[in-house]
Design brief:
By secondary structure, the protein is an alpha/beta fold. It folds into 2 domains: 2-107 and 294-323, Quinone Oxidoreductase, Chain A, domain 1 (Alpha-Beta Complex), CATH 3.90.180; 125-264, NAD(P)-binding Rossmann-like Domain (Rossmann fold). Helices cover 32% and strands 27% of the residues. The chain contains 10 helices and 15 strands. It has helices at residues 41-47, 114-134, 151-162, 174-182, 196-203, 218-225, 250-255, 264-270, 272-288, 304-312; strands spanning 2-5, 16-19, 29-39, 64-72, 84-88, 97-101, 105-107, 142-146, 166-171, 187-190, 209-214, 228-236, 258-261, 295-300, 319-323. Strands 3, 4, 5, 6, 7, 14 and 15 form a 7-stranded mixed beta sheet that branches. A 6-stranded parallel beta sheet has the order 10-9-8-11-12-13, sandwiched between helices. Helix 2 crosses helix 3 (151-162). The longest helix has 21 residues, at 114-134. The radius of gyration is 19 Å and the shape is globular. Residues 10-322 form the Enoyl reductase (ER) domain.
């Protein structure tokens, strides 16, 4: 089978597409014939050796796929050969076939196309877990989303609205703000033209943000750490800017807010039942039109490097997918 291979941590341009053996499955795994794989920022960090975890090389990146089960292990009871599924794998997704623990694979309803399903998992499920379990977002609260036109940012805007929050989108251009507002944002801040902290304060009558979905890092995190409401929750989701910020912890003391880490990949492993419940709710919202998958660009497996570079250039409005 064909797969994208990272032989050593380094530039994205070093990735190759090669023929490798079809993986053997364990008794608790299924083998999936992949239709589409989602492209995510952590995939690029993983390849460059910049992510929180570093797998042994060589490896195949890719953490979310949609496709069809072609083999099921002896201990797998809820999935069968020929069934359309969506699954989460830490690595291995950028390939024609992938073996995944069945606890992290679920049936895919007919009303969700494979490309949208592959793009739904990481971005929307991360935002859902972050806002529901980690922030415990309540209806009527003010949610600020940084990087609000990216895949996971746009998902947070949609899910925040579905949960009844007032959503303020933070983007780098008028075009991106327009997209965020189209998907439910009540207010928008162009941080290249406005002071982020002061504008958040102004839009909240001086109270600050109840919840911040912070996936940019750097200056964005610094500004939001100073614009929190009393009892607020500052969610640490990612560092798209490339800068991991430092928090003056005295701010959390005097402002009485919490800094909450969000590591969705580990959550799916440690709490698979909750993950599955979340995905059922997400798919219900998808069917009801409360959440939508915005696919900005499609690339072939052979174009994986271009797909990752397109995303790391921060040009993406929505999601990027690889099709097989």
């Amino acid at each position: 089978m064909k797969a994208v291979v990272c032989h050593d941590f380094g530039p994205l341009s070093d990735l190759t597409v090669e023929g490798i053996p079809v993986p053997d499955i364990r008794p608790d795994e299924v083998l999936i014939d992949v239709d589409a794989a989602g492209v995510n920022f952590p995939d690029a960090l993983l390849v460059q050796g910049l992510y929180q975890i570093q797998p042994e090389t060589p490896f195949t990146p890719g953490c979310e796929v949609a496709g069809t089960v072609i083999q099921a292990g002896a201990r797998v009871s809820h999935l069968s050969v020929g069934q359309r599924v969506v699954g989460v794998c830490q690595i291995g997704g950028y390939a024609q076939k992938v073996a995944i623990n069945a606890a992290q694979v679920m049936p895919l309803p007919d009303f969700i196309p494979s490309e949208e399903a592959a793009a739904l998992v990481t971005a929307h499920a991360t935002a859902h877990h972050a806002l529901k379990q980690r922030a415990q977002l309540q209806a009527g609260e003010t949610l600020v989303v940084t990087g609000a036109a990216g895949g996971t940012g746009l998902a947070a805007v949609q899910i925040g609205k579905a949960m009844g929050a007032r959503v303020i989108a933070v983007c780098s251009s008028a075009e991106k703000l327009e997209l965020a507002k189209k998907h439910g944002a009540d207010e928008g801040i162009n941080y290249t033209e406005e002071d982020l902290k002061e504008t958040v304060k102004s839009l909240t009558n001086g109270n600050g943000a109840d919840v911040v979905y912070e996936c940019v890092g750097g200056d964005s995190f610094d500004a939001m750490s100073r614009a929190m409401a009393w009892g607020g929750r500052l969610l640490v989701v990612g560092f798209a800017s490339g800068q991991i910020p430092r928090l003056p912890v005295n701010l959390t003391l005097v402002k009485g807010y919490s800094v909450v880490g969000v590591f969705w990949g580990v959550f799916t492993q440690k709490q698979p039942r909750v993950f599955n419940e979340n995905m059922k709710e997400l798919m219900g919202w998808y069917q009801q039109g409360k959440v939508k998958v915005v696919i900005d660009a499609r690339f072939t497996l052979e174009q994986a490097t271009q797909a990752l570079e397109f995303m790391t250039d921060r040009k993406v409005k929505g999601k990027v997918v690889l099709t097989m």
